[in-house]
Amino acid sequence: DAGVIQSxxxxxxxxxxxxxxxxxxxxxxxxxxxxxxxxxxxxxxLIYFNNNVPIDDSGMPEDRFSAKMPNASFSTLKIQPSEPxxxxxxxxxxxxxxxxxxxxxxxxxxxxx
Amino acid sequence: QKEVxxxxxxxxxPEGAIVSLNCxxxxxxxxxxxWYRQYSRKGPELLMYTYSSGNKEDGRFxxxxxxxxxxxSLFIRDSQPSDSATYLCALNTGGFKTIFGxxxxxxxKA
Lengths: 113, 110
What we know:
heterodimer; A: globular; B: mainly beta
């Protein structure tokens, strides 16, 4: 199994630009999580999908952030417009339903200048 | 007050030392306790998982949960340079949301 796949691994963009992060969860996993990790705030849950349906997006910081999961094997996290304070490592994780073991992808390191 | 408190370190020990990593928490509803290991520029990976109070051992690693004190620990015996990583405690009440500690950076010197 290839594990959770994220792309791109690194993204450098200018303030105001749209950023799209992509995630392919492990096949058969029906829960998907997007996290943001910074030195100041640690690992924060942004949004949680269960069977492709967004269950909780209370961690999404602002309306500039949106996430979709059109099918069981693909999810996107979009930031529009991006701001320097969005600079962080964004992780996607997946798990089986009702399992507490989450499998994390390698992350996307986002830098907004 | 944060739900989970974890000293960020860094913690530096010589090879072979016993390492103790700890977290305290405030919510007595937490039932599931996990430790994740995160190598530099990688995603976290689950290392240990325990339910409720008690000890769990896996090779050189031992996880302890003391619910009465709201205190969890991870012990690493015979530490190796390959154990150098950030260790995050993670707690869950039984729902979908897992709360992560800030992580403790560990360096094991050869």
